[in-house]
């Protein structure tokens, strides 16, 4: 049986977002969907786990990663680390579990506001 060890409540969403990727040699971005979110992290969906033939997780070079979500009232942005990922064969996309790191006070406040709005709807 699966034990959920999350410290923060997750909220189901369907938000478009951009994943900004910075390798030493190049930077690029890719579109992802935020499937659920909490103050500590999120579950992303993506059609790929590579950018310009560089794997985001596997390899000697680890990129700097930034998630940008344009919320109705504000843009949320945070650095993050990839905690896990898996390919969902029947839907042909990747699920990517992320943990926010170095969340600024301003971004924490904006995210908490968005989460409170979600809580009021549930």
How does this structure look, described?
With 122 residues, this protein is mainly beta. It has a single domain (11-121), classed as predicted glycosyltransferase like domains (Thrombin, subunit H, Beta Barrel), CATH 2.40.10. The chain has one helix and eight strands; from the N terminus they run ββββββββα. The protein has one helix at residues 105-121, and strands spanning 11-22, 27-37, 41-46, 50-51, 54-55, 64-70, 75-88, 93-101. The strands form two sheets. A six-stranded antiparallel β-barrel has the order 1-2-3-8-7-6. Strand 6 and strand 7 (75-88) form a beta hairpin. The chain is globular and about 40 Å long. The protein starts with 10 loop residues before the first strand and ends with a helix.
Placed side by side, the strands forming the largest sheet appear as 1-2-3-8-7-6
Largest sheet, in brief, is:
6 strands, antiparallel, barrel
CATH domain class: Mainly Beta
Cα radius of gyration in angstroms: 15 Å
What is the count of β-strands? Answer: 8
Q: Work out the count of structural domains.
A: 1
Mean pLDDT: 86
CATH architecture: Beta Barrel
Distance between the termini: 26 Å
Helical content class: 10-25%
Instruction: Provide the β-strand percentage band.
Output: over 45%
SS-derived structural category: mainly beta
List the keywords.
single chain, 122 residues, mainly beta, Thrombin, subunit H, two-stranded antiparallel ribbon, 1 helix, 8 strands, 52% strand
Short description:
Helices cover about 15% and strands about 50% of the residues. The protein is mostly beta strands and about 120 residues long.
């Amino acid at each position: 049986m699966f034990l959920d060890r999350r410290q923060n409540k997750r909220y189901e969403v369907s938000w478009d977002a951009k994943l900004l990727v910075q390798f030493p040699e190049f930077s690029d971005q890719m579109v992802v969907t935020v499937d659920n979110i909490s103050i500590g992290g999120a579950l992303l969906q993506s059609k790929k786990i590579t950018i310009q033939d560089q794997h985001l997780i596997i390899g000697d070079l680890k990129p700097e990663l930034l998630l940008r979500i344009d919320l109705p009232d504000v843009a949320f942005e945070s650095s993050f680390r990839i905690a896990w990922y898996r390919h969902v064969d029947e839907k042909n996309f990747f699920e990517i579990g992320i943990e926010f790191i170095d969340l600024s006070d301003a971004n924490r406040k904006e995210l908490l506001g968005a989460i409170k709005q979600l809580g009021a709807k549930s």
